[in-house]
Target: H(+)-exporting diphosphatase
Amino acid sequence: MAILSDLGTEILVPACAIVGIVFSVVQWILVSRVKLSPERHSLSNSSKNGTAEYLIEEEEGLNDHSVVHKCAEIQNAISEGATSFLYTEYQYVGIFMVAFAILIFVFLGSVEGFSTKSQPCSYNKGEMCKPALANAIFSTISFLLGGLTSLLSGFLGMKIATYANARTTLEARKGVGKAFITAFRSGAVMGFLLAANGLLVLYIAINLFKIYYGDDWEGLFEAITGYGLGGSSIALFGRVGGGIYTKAADVGADLVGKVERGIPEDDPRNPAVIADNVGDNVGDIAGMGADLFGSYAESSCAALVVSSISSFGINHDMTAMFYPLIISSIGILVCLITTLFATDFFEIKAVKEIEPALKKQLIISTILMTAGIAFVSWIALPSSFTIFNFGSQKVVKNWQLFLCVGAGLWAGLIIGFVTEYYTSNTYSPVQDVADSCRTGAATNVIFGLALGYKSVIIPIFAIAVSIFVSFSFAAMYGIAVAALGMLSTIATGLAIDAYGPISDNAGGIAEMAGMSHRIRERTDALDAAGNTTAAIGKGFAIGSAALVSLALFGAFVSRAAISTVDVLTPKVFIGLLVGAMLPYWFSAMTMKSVGSAALKMVEEVRRQFNTIPGLMEGTAKPDYATCVKISTDASIKEMIPPGALVMLTPLIVGTLLGVETLAGVLAGSLVSGVQVMLNVVVRCVLQNRPLINSIFSEPGFKIQLSKKQDSGFFRFIVITTITTFLLFGFQIFLK
Amino acid sequence: MAILSDLGTEILVPACAIVGIVFSVVQWILVSRVKLSPERHSLSNSSKNGTAEYLIEEEEGLNDHSVVHKCAEIQNAISEGATSFLYTEYQYVGIFMVAFAILIFVFLGSVEGFSTKSQPCSYNKGEMCKPALANAIFSTISFLLGGLTSLLSGFLGMKIATYANARTTLEARKGVGKAFITAFRSGAVMGFLLAANGLLVLYIAINLFKIYYGDDWEGLFEAITGYGLGGSSIALFGRVGGGIYTKAADVGADLVGKVERGIPEDDPRNPAVIADNVGDNVGDIAGMGADLFGSYAESSCAALVVSSISSFGINHDMTAMFYPLIISSIGILVCLITTLFATDFFEIKAVKEIEPALKKQLIISTILMTAGIAFVSWIALPSSFTIFNFGSQKVVKNWQLFLCVGAGLWAGLIIGFVTEYYTSNTYSPVQDVADSCRTGAATNVIFGLALGYKSVIIPIFAIAVSIFVSFSFAAMYGIAVAALGMLSTIATGLAIDAYGPISDNAGGIAEMAGMSHRIRERTDALDAAGNTTAAIGKGFAIGSAALVSLALFGAFVSRAAISTVDVLTPKVFIGLLVGAMLPYWFSAMTMKSVGSAALKMVEEVRRQFNTIPGLMEGTAKPDYATCVKISTDASIKEMIPPGALVMLTPLIVGTLLGVETLAGVLAGSLVSGVQVMLNVVVRCVLQNRPLINSIFSEPGFKIQLSKKQDSGFFRFIVITTITTFLLFGFQIFLK
Model:
C-alpha cells in the first residue's frame, strides 16, 4: 500500500484547494489596494513616503484627478459590456445545458427502463452495481456541476480582469515593474481560482456521491465523468462565442479606425473601441479559462474512470485512486511558490526583463513540479499495481507512472518553448520573416507560411514521444495522467495567459483616457511580452488537448467494445480520411462567422463616422453600445452551426456507419486537428503581425511587436475552437 | 474465360497506343501549319480565300513583318531557356537515377546472395520462381525505363509547348477561336504522347520480360513495379525543381516589375520576363506531365502486381491480367473522340465560350469512358474470379470491377467540378470573397481562408465513397483500378492542363512583341479559362494520388506481412501523428526554397533596373540570361532537401521504429496530405487572386481573373510536391 494514508489524502486535497483559493483572494486584495478614486489615493499616497517616486512618474501637465476619473469611467464601460455579454451568453448556454442535462438523464436512465434495481457490474464481474437510474441522476448532477464550475471560474476571471485593467494603467505611471505586478497578480487570481475551484468541486462531488454509492466505485466514477462533459460543453460555447466576439470587434475597430480614418488604436473616437476591449475579456479570459478547465476536468475524469476499473478501484485503495487529484493539489502549491518568484522574490525594473520573467515562470514551475510528481508517485502509489488496458490488466510500477506524468509535463514545456522560439522577435524565425519583407509582401507570405508549417515539427515529436512513453507504460491511464502532468501547472499557465489581455486593456485605457505616450509605451511593452507568452499558453492548450482527446478516444474504444481499429479496413480508413477533414470544416464555419460579424461591425463603425457630426473632431461621443450589441448578437447566433457540427458528427456517423467508422473519424480528426492548430498558432502570429502591418500601415514595414491586432486575428478562434472540437467530439459519444 | 481472346488483347493494347501517338503527331502537324516566318505566311495566306478574315483582324498600324519576327525571336529565347534548364535538371536527375538504380540492384540482388538458382514463389506456393538476381536486374531495367519514358514525355511536351506559344499569339490576330484551337491542339499533343508512350513502353517491357520469365508471372510483374518507381522518381524532381523555378521567376518578375516599377506584366524591359515564361513550361508542362505520369504508372503497376497473385495470374488468363492496360487503351480512344469535340465538331466564336468548352471536355470524356469501362469489363473479364486480399482470396464479379473503375472516374469528375465551383468567378464563393473585399484585406483574408477550408469537404466525401466502394468490392485491386479509372481520361486532362501555360506564354509574347491590346485581351481570356481549368486538373491529380497512394499502402502492408494496422497501439498511433505532420514539413521546405530563390531573383532584377542605363526607357536590353541562371541554379540546389526528406523518412522510420510505425506514418501522411493539398489548391486561387491584387495594385480592388500571377504563386508547388511525396514515400519502401 501507499505511504500516504487515506486520511492524509482526505486532508491534503481539499487543503491544497483551499490554499489556492485563499492565495487568489490575497492577490485580489493586493490588486484592490490600487485605488481608482483619485482624492483618497493622493491623500494616502502623500501620507506615505512613496510620494517622491509617485511624483517623478506623474503625468506631465495633465490633471491627475480627471485622468483617474476617466480611467474609472472607461473601466466601468468595459466591465459592463463584458458582464452583459456573458449574461446573454449564459442565458443561451443555460438553456442548452438544461436541455442537454435532460437528454443525458433520459438517455442513461432508459438503458434499464428507469429501473431502481441493482445490476451486475460491467467490469468488476460478480459484484453488484447501483442501478442505471442512479447513474443517470448522478451523471446529470455532475454534468451540471462541471458546467457551473466552469462558468463561475470564467466569470470571476473576467471580473478580476476588468477590475485590474485600469489599475494596471494607473500603476504604469509609477513604473513598468509596478504595472507588471498588478497585471500578473490579477492573472494569478484567475489561474488559482480556476485550478482550485475545479479541484475542490470535483473532490466534494466525489465524496458526496460516495455516500450513496458506497463500495460501488465503478458506478461512482462513471457518474463523475459527467463533470468533464459539463466543462467541455461550456468550453465549446465559451471559446466559439467569445472568439467570434473578440475578433469581430477587433477587426471592425482596426479596419475603419486605424486604416480608413488613420486614428490611433484604442482611440476613444472609435465606436468599436469598447467592444474591442470587452472582447479581450470575454474571449481571451473567460473563453480561455473555460477551455483549459475543460481539458483539466476531462483528463482528471478520464484518469479516475480508468482507475476505478484497475487495481486501485477494485482494491478500494483510496489514496492511489486519488493520484490524479493529488497531482493537481501539489500543482497548486508549486504554482503558488512559482508566482512568488514573479511578484515578490524579484522585481522587474526594465521593459526587457518582462519576457524572461514570464519564461522563468514556466521553467521554475516545471522543475518544481517534476520533484512534486516524484514525491507524489512515491507516497501515493503502491510500488506495483495493475491498470485496465482494453480488456486486460497491465502491471505497472510507480516509477513508470512518474515517467508518464513527467513526460506530459516536459512535453508541455518543450511545446511552449518551440512556440516561443517561432513567435518571439529575439530569435531568427521572426527576424527572417521580417527580413523577407524587404522584397515585399509576397516573399513575406511565402516565408511566413513556410515557418508556420515548420513550427509543427518539434511539438509533434514532443507529443509523439510523450504518447509513446505513457502509452507503453500505462496504456490509456498513462495518457490521461500525461495530460494531467501537462496541465498540473495550469495556475501559472493561466496567470501568464490572462496577464496578456489585462495589459492589452490597460494600454487601451491609457489611450482612451488621454494619458501620455510614456504610459502607453510601458503598457505596450507589457502587452508585447504577453503576446508571445500567450502563444506559449496556446501551445500548452493544444498539447494537453491532444493527450486528453487520445485518453478519451481510448475510453470510447473500450466502451464501444472495439478491440482493434484497423486502418486496413475500408470502414476505418474512410473514417480516418473524413475525420481528418473535420477540423477544416469546423474552421471554415468559425472563420466565416468571424468574417460576417466583422463585416457588420465595419459597416456600423463607418456609418457612425459618416453620420455623427463632430465624431472625428472629438466633440461628439460615439455610440459604443450599438457596437457591443452587434458583436454580442453575432457571436451568439454564429456559435450554433459549429456547435452543431461538433455534437452531431459523432451521433450521425455512429448511427449510420457504425462504431468502427466513428473510431476512424475520431482518430483522423485528432491527428489532423493537432497539426492544423499548431500550424495556425505560429503562422498567424508570424504572418499577420508583419503582413497586416504591411497592408494597413507602412509598405516599408517594420515589425511592431507592441501592437495588439498584429498577433493574428483568426489565430485565436481557429486553434481554440478546434481544441474544443476534439474534446467535445469525443465526450459526446461516451455519454 | 473472357470474350476477348489473348490475341485480341495483344493487338488491341499496342494498336490503341499507336493510334494515340499518330493522333498527337497529326495535331503537331496541324499546329505547325501556323508559320512563324512572315514572308511565306503572307504569301500562302493571300493565295487562299482566307485573306479577308485575316486582314480584318490584322494589327493596326504595326508592321506585320517585324511583329512576326519579334514573336519568333521571343519564342526562341523561351525555348532555349526551357531546354537548357531541362538539360541541367536531367544531368542531376540522371546521376540520381543511376545511383538509385545501382542501389536497387544491390539491395534486391543481395536478398539471396546474388544466387542464380530458382527459388520457391512467395505467394504461389509449390511453384518455382526465378532467382532474386533476375528480379534485381529486371526491376532495375524497368525502373530506368519508367524514368526515361517520363523524361521523354515531359521533354516533348515542353518542346511542343514552346513551339506553340508564339503560334497561338499569331493566331489570336485572326480570332479567339483560332487561338484556342492552336493552344488546345498543342496541349493534346502533350496529353496523347504521354498517355500512349506510357502504355506502349509498359506493354513492350512486359512482353520482352516475358521471354525470360515465361510462366513465372509473379516474378515478372514484381519486376515491372520498378516502372512505377522510375516514374515517381522523375515526378519528385520534376515537380519540386520545376515548381521552385517557375514560382521564383514569377514572384521575382512581378514584385519588381509590376509593383515597384509599375510596368505591365510580361513587359520586355523586365529582366525576369523570359525566366518567368520559361518557368511556365518547365513547371506547369514538364513537371505536371511527370507528376501525372507517375500516378498513372504507379496505379497500373499496383493493379498488375495484385493481379499476378490473384486468379488472373495463377490461371495465366492474359486478357484479364491486362485489364488495367485495356482500360488505358480504351481511354486513349475516348479522349481522341473527346478532343475532336473541342477542335473540329464545334467552333469557339466568343470569349465566354472557352470555359464551357473546356468543361464539356471533362463531361464528354467521363460519359464516354463510363460506357468504355462497361464494355471492357464485359469483354475482358471472366464473370467471376478471385482477387488477392491480404493473404486470402476474395471472390469478385466483373460488374463489381466495373463499379470500382467507375467510382474512381466519377469521383474525379466531382472533385474537378467542386474545385471549379470554388475557383470560378461565375459562382458565389469567389463572388462572396470579392464582396468581402469591400471592407478591406482583413475580411478578405478571413473569407478566403474559410472557403479554402470549406472546399475540402465534398472532394473528401467523393474520395471516401470511391474508396469504400472499390475497397469493399475488390480490396486493394479495387483501389488501384479506381485510380486508373480517374486517370483513364488523362490525355484530355493533360490537354486542358497544358493548354493553360501555352495561353499564358502566348499573352506574354504578345506583350513583349508590342502587339495591340486587343490581342492581349484575347490571350488573357484564354489564360483566364485555363487558370480555372488548371485548378480542375490539380483536383484530379490530388484525387488520383490519394487513391494510388492507398493502393501502394496496401501493397506495402501485404509485402511487410502486417495483418492489422491498429490505431490503438502506441507504435501505430505515434506513426499516424508524425505522418500527419510530414506534409507540413515538406511544404515548409519547398516554400522556404521558393522564398529564398525569389529573394535572389528580386535582388537581381532590382540590380539590373538600377545599374543598366536606359533599361526603363526601353533603349537598352536587360540581361535575361542571368535571371534564367538564378532560377535554374536555385531550383536545382533547393530540390535536394525535400527530396531527401521524402526518400529518407520511410528508410529511417522503418529501420529505427519498425514496420508498424512506418505503416502509421504512411497512413497519417496520406490522410493529412490530401487535406493540405485540397485546401491549398482552392485557398490560394481564391486568396491570392484578390489578396495579392489588393496588396499590389489597387486598394479599391476588383477581381481580375485574367492576370496570371493572381492564380496563386505557391499553390502549385505545395500541391504537386505533396502529391509526389505521397507516391514516392510509398514506393521507396516497397523496393
Summary: The first helix of chain A runs from residue 6 to 32. Confidence is low (pLDDT under 50) at residues 39-57, 686-726 of chain A. The CA atoms of residues 377 and 402 of chain A lie 6 Å apart.
